[in-house]
Design brief:
This is NAD(P)-binding domain-containing protein. It holds the Pfam family NAD_binding_10. InterPro entries: NAD(P)-bd_dom, NAD(P)-bd_dom_sf. With about 220 residues, the protein is α/β, with parallel strands linked by helices. Helix content is about 35%, strand content about 15%. The protein has six helices and seven strands. It has helices spanning about 15-25, 85-105, 125-140, 165-175, 190-200, 210-220, and strands at about 5-10, 30-35, 50, 70, 110-115, 145-150, 210. Strands 3-2-1-4-5-6-7 form a seven-stranded parallel beta sheet, sandwiched between helices. Helix 3 links the parallel strand 5 (about 110-115) and strand 6. The longest helix is centred in the middle third of the chain and has 21 residues, at about 85-105.
């Protein structure tokens, strides 16, 4: 039976976000899908309600930021955003603003994509920023907070990222020999991440960090498609 929920997606024009959007469109539990993006998506559906905004000033969207759950699929890379201040504003600032608005507007489910290896004490800037984001998002104490920590996300992106194609092919080959303790480092398909996000939002599951191997396990046993 349909529950007529409202969902918010940040990053619906990205690789994982676009797949998540398609899943929610087909899911009869959702009546409205609010998209907060800096550019319009190419997907058209009566469920979609688009908000073209400056994500770096998301707090200005407080009135429209109402829903049952929030999916944060925002992220960038060093090659795409070499400036560290801008990088932090995107990978830390946007998820934090979204979580803060969620708490203020009584949205009880917040799901964000982080990365395997995130650690606030890491010497690597990327991992350190992701780790700080995780730590501070959890401090906001949204009842159902899920932080997904995927390894390299496979799949074809619209924008080209230098060296990423080769690394993905290498990881794809290595997946066959990454077994036992190494299994958690296998690359993961964006479809599996999207499936896991929808599952977490609609089932009783302990809040916290969801590591790469758990993402794949949940997706493989609960895919509705």
């Amino acid at each position: 039976m349909a529950t007529e929920k409202i969902a918010i997606i940040l990053g619906a024009t990205g690789l994982t976000g676009s797949l998540l959007l398609k899943k929610l469109i087909k899911d009869d539990r959702y009546k409205t899908i609010k998209l907060f993006s800096r550019s319009a998506t190419t997907i058209s559906d009566p469920k979609i309600e688009e908000h073209i905004v400056d994500l770096l000033n998301l707090e200005l969207s407080n009135t429209d930021f109402t829903a049952d759950e929030v999916y944060c699929c925002i992220g960038t890379t060093k090659s795409k955003t070499p400036n560290k201040s801008t990088y932090k504003a995107i990978d830390y600032g946007i998820p934090m603003a979204a979580a803060t608005l969620s708490k203020a507007n009584n949205i009880n489910t917040f799901i964000v994509i982080s990365a395997l290896g995130a650690n606030p004490k890491s010497k690597l800037f990327y991992n350190r920023i992701k780790g700080k984001m995780e730590k501070d998002v959890l401090k906001i104490n949204i009842p159902n907070t899920y932080i997904l920590q995927p390894s390299l996300i496979s799949g074809k992106r619209e924008e080209k990222r230098a060296g990423e194609w080769f690394f993905k092919q290498l990881m794809k080959a290595l997946n066959y020999i990454m077994v036992g303790p190494l299994k958690k480092y296998q690359s993961v398909a964006p479809e599996k991440i999207a499936t896991t996000m929808v599952y977490l939002a609609n089932n009783n599951f302990p809040s916290g960090r969801i590591k790469n191997d758990k993402i794949k396990q949940i997706a493989e046993t609960n895919d509705r498609d």
